[in-house]
Design brief:
Layout (H helix, E strand, L loop, with lengths): L1 H28 L16 H4 L3 E3 L6 H12 L6 E3 L3 H13 L6 E5 L3 H4 L2 E3 L11 E8 L2 H4 L1 H9 L4 H12 L4 H11 L1 H7 L10 E6 L3 H16 L3 E6 L2 H10 L4 E7 L4 H6 L4 E18 L12
Parallel strand pairs: 1-2, 6-7
Antiparallel strand pairs: 3-9, 4-9, 5-8, 5-9
Helix pairs in contact: 8-9, 8-11, 9-11
Subcellular location: Cell membrane
GO molecular function: amine transmembrane transporter activity; carnitine transmembrane transporter activity
Organism: Calidifontibacillus erzurumensis
Length: 306
């Protein structure tokens, strides 16, 4: 009888220990969307959760160069910067955001994604991405003499991040680019009057505006094109990669651009083509670039990616 009870006790003890072990394993492998474990086991890194990928945009863009430098400066040797486009980046962001999954993207403001999603920049203690930037207007040499009225409009063009965001949101919600620009121009007559003060109308003079395919630059270029069209210019919009945009202004194949990000994003192009263009100064101030994540991710600094 004692032998039977002893066997029974041992059997119960084994089952109990097995159950505890199973629960412990479950706790150790339960992972939340921040990239850490919800139990007391070893943490799963953010890198593992996103397959060590940062979703980028066009190759050669200033923010891509800055991100490559950030990977080096912060010792993120296992990480890969994925090239693509602005549209592909926002599509990947939306897909992850809708599922509350972790994702890291290259980001900049102004951009409509900050109005649509709850996002945050990762702190950059090494200052790789620089401080706040401005978007400048640049024109080819000789543009002022050839098109003095367009030059004056471009020189007086200045607006806010809220202005730009209003146009971007209309486009993102399905309105055609030129229609969104026309609507904004119609609703902001006082601002347009400041841009066109002292300007005379022309009769079909041709102007080419170059821009990069960022949502912000699509908005600004279409708006300024509408203003120039309303005073009689025949405006052609040419979408290019950043390097080609600067080269076009420098060689005169394009007349102007309101899409030059300085002093960091387009620093290389500014230096390369120095003297071959005229910088009219900022048309929008207080922009920013860096690495962006959804706010639900429990990570706050680029250093935490290592």
């Amino acid at each position: 009888m004692k032998k039977w009870l002893s066997s029974l006790f041992i059997s119960v003890l084994i089952v109990g220990l097995a159950a505890c072990g199973s629960q412990s394993t479950e706790n150790e492998t339960s992972v939340n969307n921040s990239g850490s474990t919800s139990g007391e086991g070893a943490k799963v890194s953010v890198g593992e959760m996103v397959d060590y990928k940062i979703i980028g945009i066009d190759p050669g863009a200033g923010i891509m160069k800055a991100t490559e430098k950030a990977i080096e400066e912060y010792g993120l040797n296992d990480w890969k910067l994925v090239e693509g486009s602005g549209a592909a980046m926002t599509a990947a962001l939306k897909k992850a955001y809708d599922k509350e999954e972790p994702i890291i993207v290259t980001g900049w403001t102004p951009h409509w994604k900050f109005a649509k999603f709850d996002l945050k920049y990762l702190d950059d203690p090494k200052g790789v991405y620089g401080d706040e930037e401005s978007i400048h207007t640049i024109v080819r040499n000789g543009f002022k003499e050839d098109h003095p009225n367009a030059y004056k409009v471009l020189d007086q063009f200045y607006w806010t991040a809220d202005d730009m965001s209003a146009v971007m949101v209309m486009i993102e919600e399905g309105m055609k680019e030129e229609e969104a620009a026309a609507k904004w121009v119609e609703e902001n007559a006082d601002t347009i009057a400041e841009w066109t003060a002292g300007v005379e109308k022309v009769n079909g003079d041709k102007i080419t505006l170059a821009y990069v395919a960022w949502a912000s630059e699509i908005a600004s270029t279409n708006v300024i094109a509408k203003v120039l069209q309303d005073i009689g210019y025949n405006v052609k919009l040419t979408q290019l990669e950043a390097g080609a945009m600067w080269a076009g202004i420098a060689d005169g194949s394009a007349d102007a651009s309101v899409a030059a990000w300085l002093p960091v994003t387009h620093a290389d192009y500014f230096a390369e083509f120095q003297g071959k263009f005229e910088d009219l100064g900022p048309n929008l101030e207080g922009t920013k670039i860096g690495l962006v994540v959804p706010s639900y991710m429990e990570i706050n600094s680029i250093e935490e990616l290592k």
